[in-house]
Design goal:
Blueprint: H1 4-16, E1 23-29, H2 33-43, H3 63-80, E2 84-92, E3 96-104
Parallel strand pairs: 1-2
Antiparallel strand pairs: 2-3
């Protein structure tokens, strides 16, 4: 289960034509901190730079409402940074996962 977001994230990044290094922010929805550690080790992401305003664990586990809130926070974080690319990823129902790449324009 900790590795499920890795493949989903890679598919989303490939579909968007971007790499981890292109991202200005990463948010995750995971039931355990080990998920983010596994993700960072596999992708080269800086685990200390993820979830800058907290992660969805503080709101509970259901991905629907907490995932949507994390996506909104990701958009807000990118806006505060003047725009850029962001990734939201998280596990869903055990060994499945989802990921989404968003871009916020500086305009």
């Amino acid at each position: 289960m900790p590795e499920a977001p890795i493949a989903a994230s890679q598919k989303a990044l490939d579909h968007a034509g971007v790499k981890i290094a292109d991202l200005a922010a990463i948010k995750s929805h995971n039931p355990f901190a080990v998920n983010d550690i596994a993700f960072a080790r596999a992708t080269g992401a800086d685990v200390m730079g993820m979830n800058n305003y907290g992660c969805s664990l503080i709101w509970g586990h259901p991905q629907g409402p907490t995932g949507l809130r994390a996506v909104v926070e990701l958009i807000e974080e990118l806006a505060l940074k003047g725009g850029g690319l962001g990734l939201f990823q998280g596990c869903a129902a055990g060994d499945s996962s989802m990921a989404l790449v968003v871009e916020v324009s500086s305009r």
